[in-house]
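Hey L., structure's done. Input below.
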Amino acid sequence: MLVSFDAAVISLALEQVASGLRSPVFLTHAGDGSGRLFIVERAGTIRVLADGALLPAPFLDIRDRVGSQGLEQGLLGLAFHPDYQANGRFFVYYTGLQGQTVLSRFQVTDGPNRADTTGETVLLTVDQPASNHNGGMIAFGRDRLLYVGLGDGGAANDRYGNGQNLGTLLGALLRLEVDAGTPYGVPASNPFLDTSGARPELWAYGLRNPWRFSFDRASGDLYIADVGQNQYEEVNVQPASSPGGENYGWPVMEGLHCFPGGDCDTGGLQLPVVEYDHSQGCSITGGYVYRGAAYPSLTGAYFYGDYCFGRIWALSRDADGTWVSHLMLETGLNISSFGEDEAGEMYILDLNDGVYRLIDANRP
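Output:
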């Protein structure tokens, strides 16, 4: 993590690199050295941006099995296998036609820009009692295990009692071994294997709606942006050395505050490192720790934004360990996601259409 910096001397801007998209919600790379970017469209397609051009045919089109009626439903997550260049496997997270969460594996065809839609292997389905708080982020950690983020089931006030319930997959972060077991394996080091009544897939819990988490590609630390309810948005950080099992507090806490107010017992809870209230935004969108080469002064800063206000912040630490958030950019966009290319440069997605690259406003 970057130890402080002077935000006043850094001027960032956005450069649009793609348009003509329908509700883009995620961007990533395949780790195969091709330089291609893969853009997820909420209705159920994945588009390829290659050499600065958006290819006309989708990489994946599963609109026939994706439910996207609600704003928080649809094709939401994409993760390429660490050995994708050799095995051609990738994983998606989407809302099924009955409103259920689906985690599936697909395979690329002999053509590198086209996936096989007929060979879907469903790894996991989870019933969703409401149309919101669907989570949707999936990512591989340095341990080569797949992490999956699910919201608390939706509605409001943790109506379904999932946030503090170890017996459900909702309101939690899962850790799965996708190269073992049928349809997946449970890592032997998962923290709740010996807890009576707990789901063994759980890695952490007490989350409301983790809208994007990411691993620092240098340190392995995990950053989780959790969408708040009425007042506070938050960022949680799990160090790479953690054995898992963190309770991030929802619905006991919203941000650093007792929910819905008054006194509460914070014992055993992992509190966020930073929060912002709804005078600054209304729905957090998590990003990445910057590890690119274009802005050395920002190396190690964690970027995140707000969907409603379009603000982008960078998070660093003071010399005494205090976390500090710096407002970097006012975009006016509906920030649906951040993305990274293989070199670690950062992108911002606007739900209304565009994909933008973060650039230095002072450079030609």
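The mean pLDDT is 95. Residues 199 and 257 are 28 Å apart (CA to CA).

-- N.
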